[in-house]
Amino acid sequence: MYSECLALGIPEITFYGFTVDNTKRPGTQIEAFRNACVEAVAELEKRDADLLVVGNTQSVFFPKELMRYTQRTRIGEAASKLTSS
């Protein structure tokens, strides 16, 4: 989807990977959502992006692997601005 947005000239993308409502799900589903967020950012690390991850960093559900992206981070040529929550 990221590549398609770039091809269409969309300069900024926001995607929601984990919401407060998801914290009410069974533990296996919570873990799956968290893992999907971490994997999505890992994929974006391979591309040119200007990445910002937002969320409650004090929550036990916030993936610690994503803490370094809670400040906007330029990756490569930063072809697109991405915000993830």
Written description of the protein model:
By secondary structure, the protein is α/β, with parallel strands linked by helices. The chain has one domain (2-84). The protein is 28% helix and 19% strand. A four-stranded mixed beta sheet has the order 1-4-2-3, with no helix packed on it. The model has no long low-confidence stretch (mean pLDDT 86).
State Rg. Answer: 13 Å
* Major beta sheet summary: 4 strands, mixed
User: Helix and strand string, N-terminal first?
Assistant: HEHEEE
Beta-strand portion reads: 15-25%
Helix content: 25-40%
Q: Average the pLDDT over all residues and give the rounded result.
A: 86
Unreliable spans: none
In DSSP terms (H or I, runs of 4 or more residues), the helix count works out at 2
Structural class: alpha/beta
Count of distinct strands: 4
Number of domains: 1
What's the arrangement of secondary structure elements?
Layout: H1 2-7, E1 12-15, H2 27-44, E2 49-53, E3 73-75, E4 81-84
Parallel strand pairs: 1-4, 2-4
Antiparallel strand pairs: 2-3
Summarize the structure.
The protein has one domain (2-84). The protein is built from two helices and four strands, in the order H-E-H-E-E-E. The protein has helices at residues 2-7, 27-44; strands at residues 12-15, 49-53, 73-75, 81-84.
